[in-house]
Amino acid sequence: MSVPHPRARTDLPRPDGALPLAGSAHVWFEPGVGAAPGLSQPRLVLPDLPTDRPLVMGIINVTPDSFSDGGTLRNLDETLRRVRAMVDAGADILDVGGESTRPGAAEVPVADEIARTIPVIAALRAAGITTPVSIDTRKARVAEAALEAGAQIINDVSALTWDPDLARLAAEARVPVCLMHAQGTPQTMQADPRYDDVLAEVYGFLAQRMDVAVAAGIDPARLIVDPGLGFGKTLTHNLTLLQGLSRFHGLGAPILLGASRKRFIGTLSGVEMAADRMPGSLAVALMAAGQGAQILRVHDVGATVQALALWRALTVVA
Ligand code: PT1
What we know:
TIM Barrel; 35% helix; binds pteroic acid
């Protein structure tokens, strides 16, 4: 990725001629050589969500290992309490997933994924929670049931490569779709990931998957892109993607980033337990905000919202 490109900046005062980066109230750039057309234009995720600040997507994992007691009928109550806490803490979007895609995780049968996620989406809507919900799935039948229950975004870590029916469903449902880059599948992806130029290859893959999505009838304005931290990436690959994150604005879609509590944060900070990686996750969230990322997928919604409130006050023209 040796093409010239404008730097994403948040320092003040802004020079004459500074333009908002992708509609941000906080991040700006100086147009010039290498500025992709439309780089200052806002990237709409959903009509009711703001485009001038990073959105916080709260992670709702509905997998047996994410419950205090391993898996009983009390799970729905426990999950709804987590959902309410995230909404109260300021989540803009709730990302509900029933299949772990962490390194080494096994595939979950469709019926199990549906049985885990759909009751949660139905229950939160029945409880009057109106926060937009995304369904974190690679499978059309899961996505279809989730949309029926009230979800309105599809988050596919396979970027429409897993299930041949998902692109058509997304086109027909007219919902936003997140296309995420991965090298390999969760089972094998961390074995020996290799790239000649990780930024160029991830960028090129996302551009190609956007083309495939559009050819399947998905409105390009409904696409979201994600470099897929930890999905077939070494520590160095993750750092290169983070340091070059603003390049992905050239794709013309909102950028979603999932860094929260991931292994690379533990490696760099010497923290073994994922649950203890909130501070490092906040550091990455603020760095991504500084590069104009539109959606931050996080476990710690309250902490992230607080950090962003300060970042916003410190990066806006007073
Ligand atoms: C992500 C993401 C996701 N991550 C999107 N969806 C996961 N759009 C699930 C580790 O290295 O980044 N973007 N859905 C969770 N996957 C991982 C991968 C969890 C790696 C942990 C690691 O620790």
